[in-house]
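Fold it.
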Amino acid sequence: MGDATVSDAMKSTGGTTIRPDEAAHFGALAREWWNAKGPMASLHQVNPVRLRFIREAVDAHWGSDRAGIRPLAGKAALDVGCGAGLVCEPLARLGADVTGVDASAENVGVASAHAEGAGLDIRYMSGELASLDIGAFDLVTSLEVVEHVADKPKFLSSLAEKLVPDGLLVLSTPNRTTASKLLLVEAAERTGYVPRGTHDWDDFVTPEELRELLAAAGLEMGEPQGITWRPGKGLHLSVSDLSLNYIVTARHRAR
């Protein structure tokens, strides 16, 4: 990928962040989202790893009891690109007042029905994040989303605007490496591990690029951890291997 392409991906277009084709792609999968053995199986497999990182980040940020079962009690959480609610529901069980936003109305419909069936009170909305009057949040999460948006600077600025001054942002996204191209795009889609058309490798963001984008939005990025796989260990967090996916915190820069 040449420097010109990287530069273009880092620029704001001034338009919407939602790509209609991406919203349609994931909306078509909405009814299968909660099927742990269906087309979204990869998300079900990685979700415990992502949630482990979120829980550790929450405990570290707010100094909560690591043995407590509701560390987000009294806090408002927003999950952007929420799909059918795989992250929203665990956040609600951790005590948060949760809002989920997604580009796909189909996803939001399935998410709302699933939460109701689980006895969880979660507010779901569809649309462009910047245009939604939903307030500000203590915790904002957006997992495996930034690689799908049309305008990355605008999207990250929108996330920053929804975060209270002392709040915590958690992002995860694939890294743009040779390994991710071979494994996350070519092999994963060829074998059916992820649905075809899910990823465009050119839209992947490196940790260095994400740090720069977040800084432009007034946020300071923490040290990323990789989400990787190893025989005998499976999917796990790694401080040294960021070659496939990575997850990271960010917060408003101190004034």
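The first strand starts at residue 76 and ends at 80.
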